[in-house]
Amino acid sequence: MAVSLLDEAAPAQRETLKREIHTNIAELDALVEEVLLASRLDSGGDVLLMQPVPLRALLAEECARVGARLEEAPAGAPAAEVVPGDERLLRRAVRNLLENARRYAGADIVVQVRAAAAQAGGGVEVRVCDRGPGVPEAWRERIFEPFFRLPGHAEHEGGVGLGLSLVRQIAQRHGGRVRCEPREGGGSCFSLQLPA
Predict the structure, then answer these.
(1) By three-state DSSP, how is residue 187 classified?
(2) Rounded to an integer, what distance in angstroms lies between the CA atom of residue 174 and that of residue 172?
(3) Torsion sign, CA atoms 138, 139, 145, 150
(4) Which of 5, 29, 52, 115 has the most crowded Cβ, counting Cβ within 10 A?
(5) H-type alpha helices, 44-180
(6) Which residues pair with 113 in a beta bridge?
(7) What's the pLDDT at 116?
């Protein structure tokens, strides 16, 4: 008869082991889901369900989930920016940016939504800004490659390097783009631009 580690553990250890097992299973589920989504987007097999998406409402929900601060709309701006898109995929892109910021920067995350500059093609720009260690200029494009992680971060921060790659794929499927910039005063800002 096989005896498991859980059977031999003291009650307090047993609860700790159960939580760790549940966390590991959740991480594996998320990884499998991200790999499948990346594969579908890469092959063009994931059909976009285009509809008007109230971007500010989506951002407010996702910010509340991770404790990020959504800046108020500037005076004169529409109360709820609406973009054409697949809400499920746009939510995933925003969630990945927010979770990435939380992983590397902790609690000081600010989200802004504004009209994109005309030279960037117009539309709407979502900025997720953090006070983390920042991304060196040499790596600002590479971080969007599948499975790429900054040297030294993989051992401490977790993740498998698919989140930002998915953000780029989702942006491109919507006719938009994403980029990483340094944040004044330290940290990074990830800019997701979408057509209006």
Answers:
(1) coil
(2) 5
(3) positive
(4) 115
(5) 55-66, 87-105, 154-157, 163-173
(6) 126
(7) 74
Q: Is 156 helix (H, G, I), strand (E, B) or coil?
A: helix
Q: Which residues make Cβ contacts (< 8 Å) with residue 181, sequence separation at least 6?
A: 140, 188, 189, 190, 191
Coil vs helix vs strand at 169: helix
- Closest Cα partner for 160 from 172, 145, 174, 175? 145
User: CB 107: neighbour CB atoms within 10 A?
Assistant: 12
State mean pLDDT over 164-192.
93
Name the band, by pLDDT with cuts 50, 70 and 90, for residue 63: very high
HSE of 52, CA atoms in CB hemisphere, 13 A = 4
Q: Which residues contact 120 (CB under 8 A, 6 or more apart)?
A: 193
Q: Provide the token pair at 54.
A: 């109230």
Residues in the chain: 196
Does residue 44 sit in helix, strand or coil? coil
For residues 57 and 74, give the distance between their C-alpha atoms in angstroms, rounded to a whole number: 16
CA–CA distance, 59 with 97 (Å, rounded to integer): 11
pLDDT tens digits, residue range 34-43? Answer: 655 555 666 5
Is-contact 151 161, C-beta < 8 A? no
